[in-house]
Amino acid sequence: MSSRFFLSRSEMGSLSRALIICLAVAATAVEFTVAEVVVSGVVFCDRCKDGRMGFSDYPHSGVKVALACAGEDGQVSVLKESSTNRLGHYWMSLPGNPDMRRCWAQVVKMPHGSRCGGSASSATRLNLNFRLFNLDMYTAGPLLTQPTKAMAFCRVSASQTPSPTASPTPPAIALPPTPFSQQSACTYQNWTMPENKCNWRVVRPDTKVAMAFGLPAAWKYGTDLTLWEALHGRGDVYKTLLREGTAALLNSFGNAQFEYNTLTVLGRMTWALEGPEKEALMQALRFRRANSGPGNVTNCHLPTCSS
Predict the structure, then answer these.
(1) pTM > 0.85
(2) Residue 292: closest CA among 244, 243, 227, 249
(3) Phi and psi, residue 65, nearest 5°
(4) Looking only at Cα atoms, what is the longest distance across the chain?
(5) What is the distance between the alpha carbons of residues 139 and 214, in angstroms, rounded to a whole number?
(6) Would strands 103-109 and 64-70 be described as parallel, antiparallel, or unpaired?
(7) Domain limits of the chain?
(8) pLDDT on residue 5
(9) 173 in Cβ contact with 101 (< 8 Å)
């Protein structure tokens, strides 16, 4: 397949910065707008048909994605549809405050003549990234489309790994709890305690780093590293950055008064990964300071997990 489908590191970085700037502008302007829900996501062509996003995959443009929801009576309705741009991204905006707990995103139509138009992945649930004033920002997990046959260079053939199939059945969706209001900052040691696992919100210990922090993190750390493994990283500037950044991300999800909101954590991670090593180290230290609480005195308050 032609290399024109791949994006360079600089192009990936430009895309990440542009998305972050757009989200930041939206967040600052939302106070003056009516209530709105925004859903975004990305569609990739899974060329190896292994059911996951890898370095050989590319963004799939022109794919129609539907935002569907199930009512209390079990009836499924499509709220909105959108097509992916040339970078595989789609956006949907809904007025008001609709209930998104039973909603998901799903590929419904392939572009005509697509080289990756054999099948599409099953539906993917929505994650609440942040809630600010009148704006709720959700992201959907990556959707995968697949060619009829896996590429010849793939180690795993289509017959070895079951291909996901599209399904109208809504997945189990759990809306992340609203962050508790008591001021709290927890270190990576706090987040690795077994008794605190129930306090992970939006993401889970087995969530991939690449999915949580985006494409720049995928370039740096690969696509298999989990957030739980990231919290145990040490001995290297970028492992330290990821460890502290992961703790900061968990703090931002779990507490409305944490020094950095979720969008800021993601943005600072992206800039640190794309900058010089010195900047990565400085950002790691900033995250560490925030995770330790005001005055570097750890003030970690997490709800007690039931046994």
Answers:
(1) no
(2) 244
(3) -115, 135
(4) 59
(5) 12
(6) antiparallel
(7) 3-146, 188-296
(8) 44
(9) yes
